[in-house]
Amino acid sequence: MKTQTEARSSAKRETILNAATASFRDDGYESASMDRIAELAGASKRTVYNHFGSKEALFQAVVGRVFDEAVALKQVAWDPARPLEHQLADFARAKALISQDESSLNLYRVVLGVFIKHPELTQEVMARAANDESSLVSWLEEADRAGRLSVPKPALAANVFWAMASGALFWPQLLEGPMDPVARDLLVDEVVETFLARYRSASG
Question: What pLDDT, in 10s, does the model give residues 40-81?
Fold first, then answer.
C-alpha cells in the first residue's frame, strides 16, 4: 500500500510528465526547457530535476509512456468465437488510434524528428517497444494452431501486417493530418482482407 508521501511523489511525477508532453509537443524538443516544463507543472525546477535528472531523461520518459500506450492498444487476445476479420481489424485500428488527433500527431512528429537527429535518445525505448509488440505474433500462433490461418512464420507475418497497417493508416496521418473515419475504416478492411488473402488456411 502506498504511503501518502509516495502517492504525492507519484502524482507529481505524472503532472511533470504531462507538462513535459505538452511542452515537447508544442515547442519541439530543442526549444522545450526545464524552466517552461516546471512552470506548466506548477513545480519548482528543482522538483523537476529531482524526478528527472535532465531534459534528455524527461524526454525519454515521455516517449516511453507514448510507446507503452501504443503497445497497450495492440493487446488483442485470440478469441476462436470471433471472426478473424473482426480481430485483425482491432489490431489495424490500434495503429490508426495512436494518431487519431492533431495533438497526438504533433507529438509523434516531434519524436520522429528527435529520432532522426538524436537517435540515442529514443533507441532504447524503440527497441523495448518492438520487443513488447508480441501480441499479434501470439495471436497468429493461436490462429495457426486452430487451423484458421496458415502462418509458418508468425513473426514475419506480423511484420507484414504492421507494415501494411502503418503504410495505410499511420504514416498518411502523420504527414497529412487526421483521417476521415469512413476512409479509415475502408483502409482497415482493405489491410485485413489483403492479409487474409495471403494467410487464411483452406479450412479457415
Answer: 999 999 999 999 999 999 999 998 888 888 888 888 999 999
List pLDDT tens digits, range 85-123: 999 999 999 888 776 677 888 888 998 888 888 888 777
Superfamily of domain 59-199: Tetracycline Repressor, domain 2 (1.10.357.10)
CA distance 191 to 165: 6
pTM recorded for the entire structure: 0.81
Helix axis angle, 4-27 to 102-117, nearest 10°: 80
All three cell numbers of 188, joined, read 482497415
CATH 1.10.357.10 residue spans of the chain: 59-199
The superfamily in CATH containing domain 1-53 is Homeodomain-like (1.10.10.60)
